[in-house]
């Protein structure tokens, strides 16, 4: 199936929650270049992914509205008149969710339900794409993990994202708000948070690499992850939004997997130097670690024609170059 | 396995949330008779199951504290010093959850997480038994439904109860708060709410029967349900609390199933008169109906030695008699 993305979004009105964040801002840039009319909502909470530099200088077709998705009045206003909603705002740190579970609940459950209620009351037209996570599966019981895999999250963030996704599917089925959900795996690329591992460990590793610190790999480094370059993930969001067939559905993203040890070696090689060390899991990480993960993305390939197209090395190289040039805006 | 229930709870300190409600109050009465020291917390919200008559005249061993489980300060105080917590407070109406999803979330998600946080901070000792629901399974994909059945709730209440249960299991696994969860199916008996179908359709049917109104059965009446008499459900709560083997586990309750048509006929026969009629599903009920349900309770039978022991007719007869004598306190 081939979807004509260029013409789908031209002059369309689009709301992107978390639009100053990592994936959100990459999505904004792509849509702005397609001549869509984009409203960004982002809270810029310092511990989260929002960063004004991600959209610095971008004014054509983009309006940035600083607000918290927990503010139901703001969201109720902003959903009106939209043709598409990309719903990426969220608390993403697993550790933070264990330390402060109620904040995670307010953002990943309550605010999501509140946004959907606003759509139900005020605008049931927009196609809504929700950024879900492979974390809801918990520790894989089989590999690769397809969408039928049991949902057994191992941390508060996983539980709340599971509920957040379920709300979207329910509002699609019962209330006719056309929503779908992408279960993201590890995404990396320009504009990710790198000052800590709150958003992704790859960001922290990259920061350590460029600052000539040793990369710290937890455990024996044999655990595998599948990594998507952000441009591919943006493609998936656009395809999911453009296709009526995605409505009411969930889709895994995914990629060929690599062990963390091999990933560290590859990043060091691409960087032209560096080192890594194996360290034991910290006490607070071990019980919520999920071991090896590899997603089965057959469904989205067959339904929407998506597959990851950026080779891992190429994506990592572009990422390293981006942060070499823009280090001071992300450290 | 045989657990000595009598001696387990003697002089133990016990908190029961929702203790003026249907199952909660039956549990209170049993525990008080075992010489346990029971604190009841109940909000008495008129649309919910709490009813002061359920514990009228009961003062020996029971202290009633009117409070909302959404009040974190109250709950933080009350969990301290307890040996057991039976956590039954909840919003249970599926229709209400669709109309007012955020209230359902506050009670069934946020307040649950808040109670668990209070345990984590202040008292990790009490065995905690959570009242979950078969509603989290959604429409059965196979019968009977065991605990491995996919979790695909069809309404907001099911989603929020799914999250609420997951929090309990997580706090058991990660934080050492010894919790378990019972997935209840349709429970009936003395002290249930009968003035509407918010808690159970059986209550409403019984009210219609005693008031000589026609029982209204939705659809073709062929859909099946498995019904547990409340005394059996109380047994399950006590066994789950008393057994260390239940910690971190979920258990279905269940019973042999009966079609709604046959159930209506049985109730009319036991009542010595009455009638029923088949009516189409109301528009707001049809999309959240789950069809036929029958639970597989092998796991709790093998692990805790529980099985339903009250024959359906006997339970219904006791229920009809109870409401004939106490109609004015429940209508």
Description of the molecule:
The structure is a homodimer of 331-residue chains. In chain A, 39% of the residues lie in helices and 17% in strands. Chain A is of the alpha/beta class. Chain A has a domain at 5-191 and 227-255 and 295-309: Rossmann fold (3-Layer(aba) Sandwich). Chain A has a seven-stranded parallel sheet, with helices on both faces. In chain A, strands 7-9-11 form a three-stranded mixed sheet. In chain A, strands 8-12 form a two-stranded parallel ribbon. In chain A, helix 2 (22-33) links the parallel strand 1 (13-17) and strand 2. In chain A, helix 3 (72-78) runs parallel beside helix 5 (101-122) and helix 9 (260-271) crosses helix 11. The N and C termini of chain A lie far apart (41 Å).
Query: How many strands of chain A?
Result: 12
Helix/strand structural class of chain A: alpha/beta
Which pair has the most extensive contact? A-B, 27 and 27 residues
The main sheet of chain A comes to:
7 strands, parallel
User: What is the name of the CATH superfamily of the domain at 5-191 and 227-255 and 295-309 in chain A?
Assistant: NAD(P)-binding Rossmann-like Domain
